[in-house]
Each structure stands twice: as structure tokens, then as C-alpha cells.
Amino acid sequence: MSAIPSPPRGLPSIRAVHLRRALLLFAIVLGLAAIAASVSRPRDDAGERATSAPSAPPTAETQRTPTVSPGSADSGGSRADVVFGASDGEPTRRVPVGGASTVLVEVDEPGQVEIPDLGLSAPADPLTPARFEIFGSEPGTHEVLFAPASGDESNEVGTLAIEPDEG
Q: pTM, whole model, 2 decimals?
């Protein structure tokens, strides 16, 4: 009987090669399973979605009318809307203390409108006036400035006066 020749000393046997391949395949499968488990949804969320039945679209019988009704247009406080125009000169517009106000500044060319005392600024152009929502909590006068986009100097458009309501 002849003996199976053994491989030369430096080369691995075929069994060792198969064992390494099997271990490498096992490691790859285990790594892919770990990645899939980390990116999938938690089991609780997936189970709840699968067991809940899809809801039927509401019909006229199941729809209920809303129980909340809209309030009145009067919010309880005084509200003033004031408009400054570029061609008005330097007018003074008055708003009451303790009231919400919308200040619109209409301009003839694009630029930036500022009310520095209140820390407000907004862009404006001929089609879109600058808009400021303010709440006059303290009395005072505040200048309204306009700086055209084509120039460096600010021009006074008017004065916003926050005064006690005389009523």
C-alpha cells in the first residue's frame, strides 16, 4: 500500500484551506446579519404596524363637525396699521402704547429699511414694502430709515411715535 504523500512542509493542506474558507464565509454572513439588524426597525414598531388594520376613509356618517369655533376678529387689544411712503416727506405716524401694530414702508427703489431704536430691519422694493410687526410697550419716538441698494447713505423716511392712546 502506498502512503498518501503529504504536501511539502511550507504549503497548507486542503483541509486547512477548506476550514479557512468556511470560517471566512461564516464571518461574512455574521457581519451582514449584524449590519441588517442595526439598520432595521425595532421589533415593537414593526409588530404594531402589521397587526393594525388599515383605517377606512371617513364617510359622511363618521365625520364629525369641529367643536371649536373661530373667535372674533378683535384680539382684545388695539391694533394699528401705519404706512410710510417714500414720497410722503418725513411724516410722523402714531401707534398706541400696549397695542400691536403693522408698519409698512413703501419705497421707489430696492433697499433696506431700518428702525434702529427698535433693532428692526427689512428689505423693500417698489412692489414689496418693508413690513414690521411691533408691539409698542414703551412710549417714544423712533426714526424710520431707508438705505437704497445703489447708495451708501440712509435717508429718514419718517418717525414712528408710540404714544398713550387718547380714547
A: 0.50
